[in-house]
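[Automated response] Your request has been received and processed.

Submitted sequence:
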Amino acid sequence: MKIEPNRPLSQLCTFGIGGPARFLVDVTSIEQMRQALRYAKEESLNYLVIGKGSNCLFDDQGYDGLVIVNKIGFLEELSAGQFYVGAGYSFSRLGALTARKGWSGLEFASGIPGSVGGAVYMNAGANSHDTSETLVAAEVLSPDGELKRHERAEMSFGYRTSSFQRIPGAIVSATFRLTPSTEARKVQVEIVKYRQATQPYSDLSAGCIFRNPPAQSAGALIDKAGLKGLRVGGAMVSERHANFIVNTEDARASDVIALMALVRQRVLEATGVQLQSEVVHIPYQRANQGSLHD
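Generated structure:
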């Protein structure tokens, strides 16, 4: 492993925002992940595990600890429709590949710019489906290097939440069970086309910025409040989809945080609904435990 000092986190996330990590390391195997976690423990470093860097907002100062970039990217079809996947594998690619093979259950993953581990951690979802529906199990490496398999039945999941958010360490793999379908590829292609037509697909963003309130759409509420195009510094509420904040011109984390606060205030005044953040703000200094984001 090569541990790098002062690597800009803006290069490692879909938002293009963030100062330098004190230390950063790429890991491509479970054994390398074990070594990275051991290094953090031996050096008394806070650590953070990330995948593709979506759904997260790094601090302008960066991160005072070790950032571990999970690039564990294997893929095995254990049996018909059962896939064993490294946590660093692209969730979008997994959705497209399984649909092309005629397996249904992960079509919604196409276009979600996160990793498999991040999808499990956040219970990522779209199109009325989420990750937990087809998840069989996930393997987690503890800070002490113990590898444990967590069965789906043992874990709890909710809207963008999972038991893994309370377990220190790193998700290193997931197993999914899918069902055969002759329509899977067609559905997957239609999902991608819809996202490309309705979301700021090519802009720098962290994905949806707020959680959808029960039985409501955060994007529709923001749009109703007339906030498309609202700016703070280089951060702007997308003109295409109101639940996206995009980095238009060297936005800072402070710009995004200020814009989120303004949107919350305006939506509350206009609709009476208090929006909750979906994107995870990762401060410069944080508790000494690992967490994994998309």
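Summary generated for your ticket: Helices lie at 30-42, 91-100, 116-122, 184-198, 218-224, 253-271. The chain has a mean pLDDT of 95.
If you did not submit this request, please reply to this message.
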